[in-house]
Amino acid sequence: MDEPLNLVLFSGTDDKLQAAAVLTAGAAALGKPVNIFLQYWALDAFTRAKIGRDHGLAPEAGDEGRKAVDALGKAVQATWAETMRQAKDLGEVDIQACSLSMDLLDIEAEALDPLVDGVEGVTAFYLNAGDGQIVFI
Amino acid sequence: MDTVTIDVRVDARGLNCPMPIVKTAQAIKAMASGQALEVVATDPGSVKDFEAWSKSTGNALVEHTSDGAVFRFVLRKK
Hints:
The complex is a heterodimer of chains A (137) and B (78). With 137 residues, chain A is an alpha/beta fold. Chain A has a single domain (5-136), classed as Hypothetical Protein Ychn, Chain: A (3-Layer(aba) Sandwich). Chain A is 45% helix and 16% strand. In chain A, helix 1 links the parallel strand 1 and strand 2 (34-38). The longest helix of chain A has 16 residues, at 14-29. Chain A is globular, with a radius of gyration of 15 Å. Chain B has two helices and four strands. Chain B is α+β, with helices and mostly antiparallel strands. The mean pLDDT of chain B is 94. Chain B has one domain (8-76): 2-Layer Sandwich (Translation Initiation Factor IF3), CATH 3.30.110.40. Chain B has helices at 19-29, 46-57, and strands at 8-12, 36-41, 60-66, 71-76. Helix content of chain B is 29%, strand content 31%. The chains are: A alpha/beta (137), B alpha+beta (78). Chains A and B meet through helix 1 and helix 4 of A and helix 1 and helix 2 of B.
């Protein structure tokens, strides 16, 4: 369990971020380190101004999917940000913003939610990933 | 039948995956070696999750019962 799980988060919709948060929390509970690299729309969703907002769902969800996700949210499911926070409290979870995406979206480091640990480039991400799997969401 | 003295209890009923395991891992972290934790959960996936988590972390799953709707797990911290 020593190899880290490495997640590249690209999509900024709530369903994909929720799925990523579940994978992160599960790995953290097993004592597996998790490296998260935030790009594009996922990075945008991790800004202070937007983290608490409704980020919509992936197009394949459709109306039925929207209903199912709303029902789950109302019942028990914590938001993805809350699940990420719990995962960070529990284990070794490092969340880094992609520096290129920061430039592209014109986001300053101060604008990022405190869940984000820092800003790095893709080389640093690969280096930290070691021999662990890389998953793109 | 053996009865285990429970030191810590976690109620994870109504919580979805992966929260029962997250709450379990949080509770175990704060416990002393040898203490027993009882978890009750309703997530059907938790059965396999607890077996896998126990195997992977080395905290023994000493009891595992179910009445069909609620699953009860007793773990001993290694």
